[in-house]
Amino acid sequence: MVELPRRPTALFVGLGGGTQLLLLAARVRPRFMTAVERDPVILQVAQRYFGLGRLARTEILCGDIERVLPCLESAGRRFDFIMEDAAYADPVDRALPIALRLAGLLGTRGVLVLNRNACHHAAETAAALRRGGARVTMRRVRRDGDNVLISATDARRA
Question: By residue range, what is the domain housing residue 72?
Fold first, then answer.
């Protein structure tokens, strides 16, 4: 769905078991990966049982994304790839501002991917990114499923 540079910097919001970090590390050699997970128990399980502790060049931040975003923004952090999988079915008044702020963390040719529920606010999120000047594509994960992946490039203007 997206093209990545050979050595991307990546931000993952919503760690879960860390599958996405492991997949990225297996496909390319990331310069650096950052993950944000709000649940310390999920973080411990991912590190202990799913091998995240052995990933090189990876920082994992434990906290709610609304509390972590100001730190990333004030530090001037930029990412080539951002995957947000934490606000899947959150109310639009919480999820949309997060998506737009994450778009502001993209590097020059960065890509933002959001996992959204088609029945909630996927179309509204895509429209907001488009209004900001991003090129947006939407793709259902499965024909009979509710997951929609929203991909936005040139989204820093959003």
Answer: 9-157
Question: Which helix (H) or strand (E) covers residue 93, if one does?
Answer: helix 92-103
Share of the chain above pLDDT 90, in %: 59
CB-based contact 13:85 (threshold 8 Å):
yes
**Tally of structural domains, the chain:** 1
SS3 139: strand
| pTM as predicted | 0.91
Exposed (0-12), middle (13-18) or buried (19+): which is 104, by Cβ within 10 Å?
A: middle
Question: Tell me, what CATH number does 116's domain have?
Answer: 3.40.50.150
First to last CA, the chain: 20
